[in-house]
């Protein structure tokens, strides 16, 4: 059993939306296909992966370092004999040969994207949905039947007024979501207060609304927003300050009684552990949002979950960023607290299986081998363009 080829290409996810920090007018993502020599139903098993929004395509790093290392490794060293399958841990180790510690940045995205495709292939070779394989291997066979999801959107874009923001949020609620998320910090605090109140007219209770500042604020502004947000009793206040400014986060946590959420821009188990050690995050109410597709993949995510468990954190406090099916599988198979969803933005990567509706804020997973990309027609059509000749 061996990996024959790893193909990648860059896809555009450009759109006019903006958060408080960046606009997405030139945003891209990498799509990867891991081609194996295993044949199922007369066709080679191919695992697919892609990286989450916000970090651009990583083709150059893949082509120059990570793909060659996998293909140069002796094939027998990448096999998991016990399970008669490929070994994601050995493949990960091969990719990370001669990589120094620290400085987790774009390479963690490149590795995470290939790792997603490897796990898709592994689950397909096993003939199981990934969520089932993960539950069997790591959680005594018990998977969650449904996963809590929330609808992320509420972006800024030119000409968008409160009425359009309300229509957007109403449409998420009409599609079965209970909790919605909107951007803050891209305008004045008074404007944001008005936008929040407009959305609360639609979703009612503050517990149905999360807000996301995308790391924009300095300490003073983070605290001022904390004061302004406090009376609303929001679901969470996300990424107030710079992702690596643990002291800012700790000061905010000491002042803000509601839930905080952060971690989407921390890309290693060491950084995740430092957030939990030094960021003042409270295990009884706050949320951790590490995204495997940006942070060296599921192999590293398992280490991250172990690292936070050692510090007393339940996996139920983890609600990944990224709105993708890979994290949905991890949430169901490894007992996380839920998953982000982008019902409308970042298509075709956002959203889950076609034909499985969100009901009362929860979604089921498809019962097909792998991550389930084949159940999302627009995404699978894009992935197939990598392997049209196979
Ligand atoms: O706007 C973005 O970069 C995405 C984001 O923060 C989120 O989904 O939480
Ligand atoms: Mg965010």
TrEMBL record:
- Give residue ranges for domain Mandelate racemase/muconate lactonizing enzyme C-terminal: 162-259
Q: Which domain of life does the protein's organism represent?
A: Bacteria
Site positions (Transition state stabilizer): 53, 181, 340
Note on how the cofactor is bound: Binds 1 Mg(2+) ion per subunit.
Q: Which GO terms describe its molecular function?
A: D(-)-tartrate dehydratase activity; metal ion binding
SMART domains listed in its UniProt record: MR_MLE
User: Which cofactors is this protein said to need?
Assistant: Mg(2+)
Show the active-site residues: 183, 321
Name of protein: L-alanine-DL-glutamate epimerase-like enolase superfamily enzyme
Organism name: Stella humosa
